[in-house]
Amino acid sequence: MTPPPRFIPDRLQSRAARALRSWETILVAVAIAIFITNSFMSPFFLNAWNLSDATFNFTEKAMIAFAMAMLIIAGEIDLSVASIIALASTAMGLAMQAGAGVPVLVLAGMGTGLICGAVNGFLVAGLGLPSIVVTIGTLSLFRGIAFIVLGDKAFTGYPPEFAFFGQGYVWWVFSFELVLFAVLAVIYWVLLHRTSFGRAVYAIGNNATAAQFSGIRVARVRFILFLMTGLMSGIAAVCLTSRLGSTRPSIATGWELEVVTMVVLGGVSILGGAGSIPGVVLAAFIMGMVTFGFGLLNVPGIVMSIFLGVLLISVIALPRLFRRG
Amino acid sequence: MRILRHREALLGLAILVLLVIVAARFPAFIRPASLVNVLNDTSPLILLAIGQMIVILTKCIDLSVAASLALCGMVAALLNGAGVPLPLVLLASVILGGALGAVNGLLVWKLAIPSIVVTLGTMTIYRGSIFLMTNGAWVNAHQMTDSFKAFPRTILLGLPVMSWIALAAIAFFAIVLTRTPLGRAFYAVGGNPHAAVYTGLDVGRTQFWAFVISGALAGLTGYLWVARFAVAYVDVARGFELDVVAACVIGGIAIAGGAGTIFGAVLGALFLGVIKNALPVVGISPFWQMAISGSAIVLAVVFNAAQRRQKGRIILKQVDAP
Question: Which is nearest to B38 in space by CA: B162, B180, B200?
Answer without folding.
Answer: B162
